[in-house]
Amino acid sequence: MVNCLDSDKEALMDFKTGLHDPENRLSSWKGSNCCQWQGISCNNTTGAVIAVDLHNPHGSSSRHDFWSLSGEIRPSLTKLKSLRHLDLSFSTFNDNLIPEFFGYLKDLQYLNLSNAGFSGAIPPNLGNLSSLQYLDIESLDLLVHNLEWDTKQTPILN
């Protein structure tokens, strides 16, 4: 098994410090090989983190809200230079804005923030994600000022 990059492990540990994890879903996030951590996938050759999938496995069921992550999404995610897949759906980032730095995840192909409690305006720099193939930002509390960038660069918009 390939070992993860030290820089990616440090970025993930910093990212974790901003999260509130009431059900200890991230309890596996220890040890030297972040490729073995729950919700993390790595490139089998380089060990670079390519996916962070921390969606609530129970969806929107109120009986399982305790599975939802909340807190602050830290910009250390931008240090994951090979990140292609990010899923934080059905979390409870209540009233937080979608972080503008998501627009700097230049290799991102999949972004799912649906029903994650985000509110406010969708950052226009998400249009910088020229590799994006899937975007799900379904929410009742998001504002759209201009989605022209979506139709030009993002072939799949949910």
TrEMBL record:
The organism of origin for this protein: Ziziphus jujuba var. spinosa
Domain Leucine-rich repeat-containing N-terminal plant-type as annotated: residue spans: 6-43
Keywords: Glycoprotein, Leucine-rich repeat, Membrane, Receptor, Repeat, Signal, Transmembrane, Transmembrane helix
A Gene Ontology cellular-component term: membrane
Pfam families: LRR_1 (PF00560), LRRNT_2 (PF08263)
Protein localization: Membrane
Keyword Glycoprotein belongs to the record: yes
Protein name: Leucine-rich repeat-containing N-terminal plant-type domain-containing protein
UniProt keyword annotation of Membrane present: yes
Membrane topology annotation: Single-pass type I membrane protein
